[in-house]
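Annotated sample (chain length 499).
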Amino acid sequence: MSVRVRFAPSPTGALHIGGVRTALYNYLFARQQGGTFILRIEDTDQTRYVPGAEQYIIDTLKWVGLLPDEGVGFGGDKGPYRQSDRKEIYQRYAHELVQRGHAYYAFDSAETLEKRREAEENFTYNHLTRQALDNSLSLSSEETDKRLKAGEPFVIRLKVMPGRPIHINDLIRGEVVFQSSELDDKVLLKADGMPTYHLANIVDDHLMEITHVIRGEEWLPSTAHHVLLYEGFGWTDTMPRFSHLPLILKPVGNGKLSKRDGAKFGMPVFPLEWNGATPEESFSGFRDTGFLPEAVINFLALLGWHPGGEQEIFSIDELVQAFSVDHISKGGARFDYEKAKWFNQKYIQAADNAVLASYIGPLAAAKGYNPSEDYLQQVAALMKERVTFLPDFVETGYYLFEPVREYDRETFQKKWTPAVADFFAELIKMVATFDHFNAAALEEAVKHFMQEKGFKPGDVLPLLRIALAGTMKGPAVFDMAVALGREETVRRLEALTRL
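Output written by the structure step:
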């Protein structure tokens, strides 16, 4: 059977960056095995459904380039791929499990169960308590049928038999054993007719022929119930192999990375910007901060997995080739935002100038600039070694799009003398009439002119840089001058003389 994996997020808000890593590992495994990568939307909990969250998931996968072969928004012949569209399927299988003797109807009201929990601190609905509760195991079959025909509300619960070990051979963690006596009788079908995660997950994985389940470690405890469901349905021969991924941990301190850590540490923890109902529920994203999607993929891939060796920069094709579940760590991976920034710098530096121009263009337009495509590529070439994020091209490098706003006056005052002022007056005339306006020729001419007038590079070049960029930082002086053009360079030199 060919490999089939799924990424199955819930549309309960913005997709956390940890969810993107889960999608990535599924994608890499599917591509390496020549298999199929599926997007399934698990929206059975309608009380937590957030409008826009499903589209956010799809937009995220498109941005990072993890395109599903099947799923919501992508087609396929194993659908529907949205769980809320599969309600009748789950109901049929839930009732089938009752008929097979592995589940039962429970009529207990929410109020009754709440009173029981208040009376017993550690109350659990399980093999020890169910006979004293209101369900088809404690009632006669006649009474059960009577209640069902009368339309009395019920849930369907998994019937967990005590006294046996449940073995799970996790591809990351090895053999994990649970004791059935410690498990509760999970609700499989709720009173509103919607399935819980446990039932829907198993039915969908079976019908969609999922061969491998790669998901977060928070689902490991639930896997014991899932194994019992596979057994109850008689599907053990097609039960998928399980892999439970390590947590992504906070940058400092204990615990897993949360959405609140973004604001706390001043960094994105979501792939895309999310505008929630309140400022507290609105978050910045990696894309909007100015990350290239390839950098985010590379960073996430190494957050809990590494093939060994010294290589850190991997293209997506290299990741596919190198990926192995065997090399996923069992322990949590700390979220190192400085490392994420390093990856972004490396990817920006290596990017083609035309590609960078396609990103810089909209950023420039948003600020009211309207440069040509050729000029955007020149900006990319000038600034790519000096930026961390894409917006830096138009923010740090604003002087490539508009006149200098602020000058390094401290350096200017140290360097500016009457003799230098006289030299600049002549230099402006020379630049204004210079025939060969390219960087090499201009640099040679200006340096020759300085030498002729008795000035050292340290006397003049810092002032040239301040004239063009306002700061001692920035691209090479003569490359900037050529990009800005003769007229703008002369204007800026003249502006410096008026400080």
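Annotation: The first strand starts at residue 4 and ends at 7.
Annotation: The chain has 21 helices and twelve strands.
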